[in-house]
Amino acid sequence: MKVPVSWLKEYISFDISAHELADRLALTGTEVERVGRAGLPATDGNLDRFVIGQVRSKAMHPDAAKLSLCDVDIGGGKTEKIVCGAQNFEDGDKAAVCLPGGVLPDGRTLEAAVIRGVESHGMMCSEAELGLSSEAAGIMILPEDAPIGGRLIDYLPVSDEVLELEVTPNRPDCLSVYGVAREVSAVLDAPLMPEPVEDIEPRGDDDVEELIYIEVADPDLCPRYAARIIAGVNVGPSPAWLKARLVAAGIRPVNNVVDITNYVMWSLGEPMHAFDLAKIAGNRILVRRAMAGEKITTIDGTERALGKHMLVIADNQHPIAIAGIMGSEDSEVSGETTDIMLEAANFSGPGIMASSLELGLRSESSTRFEKGIDPELVPKALAMAARMLVELAGGRLVPGQYDIYTGPPSPVAIHLREERIESILGLPIAGEEAEAILARLGFGVRREDSAMHVDVPTFRADVTREIDLIEEVARVFGVDAIPSTLPSGMRAKGGLSEHQAAERGIARRLADSGLSEVISYTFIAPDFADRLMLKDEDPRRRTVPLANPLSVEQSVMRTLMLPSILQTVALNLAQRNQDINIFELGRVYLPVSSEKLPLEKRTVAGCVCGSMRGESWTGGGRVADFFTGKGLVENAFAAVNGDFQVRRAGEPFLHPGKSAGIMVAGEPAGYVGEVHPRVLEAFGIDRPVTAFEIDEDALIGSSAGIVQFEDLITFPAAYQDIAVTVGLDTTAEEIISVVREAGAPLLRSARVFDVYKGEQVGEGKKSVALGLEFRSPERTLTDEDVDAARQKIILLLAERLNATLRA
Questions:
Q1: Residue 800 sits in a domain of what CATH number?
Q2: CA distances from 379 to 198, 375, 622, 709 (A)
Q3: Residue 46 and residue 40 in contact, taking contact as beta carbons nearer than 8 Å
Q4: pLDDT at position 262, please?
Q5: CATH of the domain at 53
Q6: Helix or strand or coil: residue 583?
Q7: Cβ(147)–Cβ(438) under 8 Å?
Q8: Cβ contact 199:382 at 8 Å
Q9: Which of 434, 450, 480 is the last residue of a domain?
Q10: Residue 447 is part of a domain; what is its CATH number?
Q11: 109 and 26 in one domain?
């Protein structure tokens, strides 16, 4: 929302700079993104070089038939000779004159110049040269009341500072210059001018109801619809001051009728539309939902198909406007228009938003309506627009008007206690001061002993509770003026929950392992399942689609972290990052048929691509593989003192011989392995990637609790190695599980340190060597103790796994 400062000053007077005003507004919750300037530069006395001049004489250039040599009175008894190429003026006309040294809006500096042998000391400016419109065929002729020799800026707002506001969705009242002026009035404690809504007397013996019939068929989408008729208008260019105002606000001038409706919308916040009365078929307006198959060609020249839920303004034949969004070519005002129907209405915000999103069409009108604007603005906007049209377009207001209204919103009254203000804000604010602040913001306030009865204005639908009023008082009083104090009541100690602490520990451990944390979008492309080669019956193919995706590439919620991880790898490889070692603590979303919302699961995922160490002068590091990934998974579980097992993985997106499933307490909890080459190819990755993904709740739930102190010095450990021959299908995890069971309680650890396959163990067999550590917390173990435990291990291995001890 662009607010020209000079326009703002029409409603409130202040003498602080625009930048200081922006800072004051920002402290009250009205964010000013930047302070810019529209029109002529204002530095180095530039505005003094643009003055109002009057043509005293106009003669043909002695050496150019298409040029004129003019004597121009610039005031103070001075006359300058100016060579001009325009022909749209005569002696006595007044014009905007740029003197030598003047800088135009496009940055050009005008200097005195010799043109076909004649020296020209200035330029009479066109609207285009002043940045007011694209009209460059002739100079801008000023009205007769323009003071000769006066600064142009004092007569027309050809240079203006502009506040660019970021208006929050709950404050549609600030989508108007007057609404912002009300905020400034409250902040600066300055008087606010009355709304510029003075009406004009109608003329004539006819009546609106004789000229047009209006019916609202769907009041749920249009609670208020009003219209007036202005007859005998002369459609043409707007006056220069109006063009300057609109250009500074970022609006392109069109003609006086359209410009007035835009000016009223920017002033009050009520969108308006003007229809050519002669183009309304059957002299009938019906506000209704669109019918199946209806189309409309909007004023931007685009044909649009209408949905049955969309509200339209229709005549006897077809829709002539998409309600609250944009009008049609069939009914727009043109140079031949003489009579117009002026519309002001209040449309349902959600309905306008839905139609705008479906059509992919947004306008200044839809931006306001979708946020929910005050229905009481309708008659005010009609009055202001009618008066301006009569004054600037030469029309007359036809007696009568339509105002079809379901009724005003229920009044909202709130009881505000002074002691509640102090208890919430932590400092006393006098009741009189709180009352004055609310009154400046437009609230009706009356005292009731130590409390206030506050009537909420219709333009502040966001205020519904006592706490909302306290917020209004606080932001205008000045949040920066409220002292910092500790909360009263119980002393509380901040901290992390056990789950949060565990999450932090996992992230730190993975970062310490050499991985970098990333945050990726939870939205992915719908073809991820095909690229991961998921089977048709895989439940992870079922996704949650976005209702309004920004693009197809981000149109569904992910059911796996792997697509996001691989997308990050591909992006980094494209930027010539060779070693990509990353992890993410994120979420996946699994639809549940019986529930409206999906199951949202926390997940720990990561990958290694390239070397964990990187290249140096001593050489490159080892390329990461399955065992690198498994080590990272072990580190993640070690962060929470947890335990897991691995099983053969059946994931289609992993390499069948270099992957494993992660199990916690016998239940699947994730996977680790090298990504299948075909999957890598589908994501545009040309090198191996090892990835892992773990259910965070299962990971944290595997924790054995706080690590207990153990004496490792008093009684030394005893170490033995054994090698057993088992079948090729027997896993190391199965062997270690049996060894731990048989060796308890003296066995403290068992690890595989060698696997052999060959002639010495026979076909279909393998030899697995294990290192065993025995320890007792109570005494030093003897050889007999260790041998007995070792023998129990060998026997149970033979019984459970048909294992034999190698000599």
A1: 3.30.70.380
A2: 11, 9, 77, 80
A3: yes
A4: 97
A5: 2.40.50.140
A6: strand
A7: no
A8: no
A9: 480
A10: 3.30.56.10
A11: no
Model confidence at 319, in pLDDT bands (50, 70, 90)?
very high
Which residue reads 């000016």 in tokens? 263
Burial 47-75 (b: 16+ CB within 10 A, else e): bebbbbbbbeebeebeeeeebbbbbbbbb
Q: What is the 3-state secondary structure (H, E, C) of 500-546?
A: HHHHHHHHHHHHHCCCEECCCCCEECCCHHHHCCCCCCCHHHCCCEC
User: Which bin fits 370, alpha (ψ -120 to 50), beta or left (φ > 0)?
Assistant: alpha
Please state, in angstroms and rounded to a whole number, the distance separating the CA atoms of residues 104 and 477: 42
Is the same domain home to 227 and 340? yes
- Token representation of residue 624: 């990461």
- Where do the DSSP E strands lie in 368-481? 396-397, 402-405, 412-417, 444-448, 451-456
Nearest-angstrom CA–CA distance, 144 and 22: 37
What is the overall mean pLDDT for the chain?
A: 92
- The total of structural domains in the chain comes to 6
Torsion over CA: 335, 336, 339, 343 (sign): negative
451: containing domain: 412-480
261 & 347 share domain: yes
**Could you report the per-residue pLDDT of 692-731, keeping only the tens digit for each?**
999 999 999 999 887 777 777 888 999 999 999 999 888 8
Q: Count CA atoms closer than 13 A to 281's CA, side-chain side.
A: 9
Tokens of 740: 């731990």
Task: Evaluate whether 407 touches 401 at the Cβ level (below 8 Å).
Answer: no
Statement to judge: residues 526 and 505 lie in one domain: yes
Query: Which string of DSSP letters, residue by residue, matches 764-782?
Result: TEEEEEEEEEE--SSSPPP
Amino acid at 665: A
In a domain, 490, yes or no: no
Please tell me whether residues 659 and 529 are part of one structural domain: yes
CA 739, distance to chain mean position in Å, is 58
Return d(Cα 9, Cα 25) in angstroms, integer: 15
- At 758-774, the pLDDT tens digits run 888 888 899 999 999 99
Q: How many CB atoms lie within 10 A of CB 769?
A: 15
% of the chain beyond a pLDDT of 90: 81
Q: Measure the N-to-C terminal CA separation of the chain; round to a whole number of Å.
A: 86
The CA-based dihedral angle spanning residues 4, 6, 8, 13, taken in that order and rounded to the nearest 10 degrees:
150
Q: How far is CA 76 from CA 55, 80, 150, in A?
A: 15, 12, 10
Long-range contacts of 192-199 (CB under 8 A, 24+ apart): 192/11, 192/12, 192/440, 193/10, 193/11, 193/12, 195/268, 195/380, 196/10, 196/11, 196/267, 196/384, 197/268, 197/380, 197/381, 197/383, 197/384, 198/383, 198/384, 198/387, 199/383, 199/386, 199/387
- 305 and 214 in a common domain: yes
Which residue intervals of 189-276 are DSSP H helices?
Answer: 208-211, 240-248, 256-268
Cβ-based neighbours of 465, under 8 Å, separated by 6 or more = 414
**Within a 10 A sphere around the Cβ of 239, how many other Cβ atoms?**
15
List the structure tokens of 213. Answer: 């019939």
In this model, does residue 618 exceed pLDDT 90?
no
Residues 71, 140, single domain; the answer is yes
In a domain, 194, yes or no: no
Ramachandran angles phi, psi of 24, nearest 5°:
-65, -40
- Vertex 57, ends 51 and 62: CA angle to 5°? 110
Answer whether 0.70 is exceeded by the pTM: no
Q: Give the span between the Cα atoms of 339 and 279, in whole angstroms.
A: 10
> Residue 371 phi/psi, 5° resolution?
-90, -10
Report if residue 488 sits inside a domain: no
Question: Length of the chain, please?
Answer: 807
pLDDT for 30-63, tens place per residue?
Answer: 899 999 999 999 999 999 999 999 999 999 998 8
Q: In a 3-state reduction of DSSP, which class is residue 754?
A: strand
298 and 282 fall within a common domain? yes
- Structural domain includes residue 713: no
Arithmetic mean of pLDDT, 530-542: 94
